[in-house]
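Quick start: read one record
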Amino acid sequence: MKSLKNILLLSTLVTANLSFAQYTHPTTGIQGEFVGACLVADCGPSTYTDNGGIFGNYSTGINQIYRTFCPSIAGNCMQVTFTSFNVEAGWDFLLVKNGPTQNSPDILTPPNSPTVYGGISGLHGNLATPFGFTSTDPSGCLTFRFYSDGSVSAPGWVATLSCVPCAGGPTGTENNDCITLTPICSSANITSNATGPGIAAEGCTGSTCPAGGENHTNWYSFTAQTSGTLDILINPDDNNDDYDYAIYGPNVTCSSLGSPIRCSDAAVTGNTGLTNVSPNQFTEDVNGDGFTETMTVTAGETYFLVVDEWSPNAGSGYTLSFGGTASLDCTILPVDLKEFNANYEPEFHAVTLDWITESERKCDYFDVERSTDGVNFEVIEKVKGSGTTHTETQYFMADNDPELGVNYYRLNQWDEDGNGHYSDVVSVNILSDEFDILSLFPNPTTGITEVIFNSYKKEDVLLNVVGLDGKVIVNTPLSTVPGGNRFNLDLSGHGNGVYLITIKTGEKSYHSKLIKN
């Protein structure tokens, strides 16, 4: 039993947080896996406890079961603060992992305690609270994995989950989420990689494939241009990486995916996908061989494909290739839309939108629509079309009043007969000043530190490192990409002390202090 003092403390906590979502730790895995619950995307604040809840003890015999929490707001990272912690010392352990997967790196800062039992380093014993951890992974996620033996139980833990602004976290603009999926326009090979599960938890039922949902995902859509068979091959750049996949359709939406028609959760590395060597196998669990049956598609049908990397940390990437007798297309509008781009211009606090059509057929006008949640859109501008033309036409407009956070944009093209047709969605993430920060991890360091910051565009920036004596020891250009940027800084050849780190971009300078021990 917990002490009366703890009960009164926790009663106060519960009373103060009646509106909090409350999550408990699972005791068994889904379909024979160690993941025990669907991934949660929730910036909260929310309450997270062992399976006994706030007042009960946890169960014995919980064998390495884990669950993952990720931010639901772009530019944020998950933070956990433990307000109570007591598990059997030396025998039961809670591991806090920096990332979205079972084997993401353990966070080993205090009060984690190394032990010889099974080689485990984690949280155990009756620990002084509060203490906490913050994700520095590009996904912004934290994963919790728990071991309890078969004998003694204890009160467990109570923690608060929330989000904090962070440099290099999820941008909300990449195809990690269904709403920002990438259309596949032909059967040509695609190379890609993923940094995390995005800012929306999708595709998990909690019982069947995909068990637990996403880890490191890329979302795609494709439309059958001709009827026939379709094979898909996912070929990792590193054959030690474990990739899974799920296909939804035909003709579903992100808000109503339904059950996947093909899905593999197989615990195998190397190639995976759809082939004709797995007849009558539409879905498989962790014990599968990585392959499901070829699809038969009909011209005009649209499907969603999610490629998910289970391995810890974003892997080396993969190549996605297609075979079979069907051909693929992505044409959505009755105009041939060549490009549709959105870019934030921080000096004007405006988003510039431009699109190019290769040809148009009875195109009356375009409604430019904006959303802040990816679901509810409003028209912000009407742009006159070119009617019928077989030459390239360029369009441009500026949204001079975008919202802070992720702004989603799409085109609704109206033809002269009064029919509307949507484009795909593009997005930008506009950060407030509290997000424009420079992070250094680890800090203090013994040599190599990861420098993490956000950028609005692709540009060359300057990394500058100065000692307390004013001597410049590093002055080097770096090439950035829009969103989170990460670079390794190696001070192994320099003495211990405090260093001033500066990143100079086209818009501003970022500063932070780094301690080398």
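The chain has four domains: 4-165, 178-329, 336-430, 436-516.
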